[in-house]
Amino acid sequence: MFENLSLGKTALLVSMAVEEDEKFIRETAEANGYKVIKGKVGAMDSSKIFAAIETAAKKEHIIESIYRQEHALYHSVLEAYEGICRGQVGLGNVLRTAGLVFSVVKGSRLPNDGSDGEWLAVVLYGNMGAPIKGFEHEVIGLGINPV
């Protein structure tokens, strides 16, 4: 079922996987030539979300401090962020908060096919809503860009 996962599907599955499944998905992703990271971030401020993902991607060597890599990551995060905000980009200034899991996957668009270079996929998955417990709902966003 998981042997030929594309870049985007890999990022989506990793972000939503429970611990038992995540190990298998990661192993399959790595066998397909992908680098994978996963983390958590909660914030009412979008800059904290962007910073957490960029910091994790650099720390885990998904990207280096090279303009084209940072640029690809930024736009992938922005696309995923627009997805969770449903086009209304903003959190704290409109009294919304987010508790998110993020995944970043780097590799070819299709497994073991580097014919069109490296790409980055970013997924944001979690809950968003008013900053009151129980007033949130699930959200998900995906962004993919070439490096």
From TrEMBL:
- The answer on whether this UniProt entry bears the keyword Transcription reads yes
What's a Gene Ontology MF term here? RNA binding
Q: This protein's superkingdom?
A: Bacteria
Q: What is this protein called in UniProt? A: Hut operon positive regulatory protein
Pfam families recorded: HutP (PF09021)
- Quaternary assembly: Homohexamer.
> What protein family does this chain belong to?
Belongs to the HutP family.
Q: Which InterPro entries match?
A: Regulatory_HutP, Regulatory_HutP_sf
Question: Keywords in UniProt for this one?
Answer: Activator, RNA-binding, Transcription, Transcription regulation
* SUPFAM superfamilies with a match to the protein in the record: Hut operon positive regulatory protein HutP
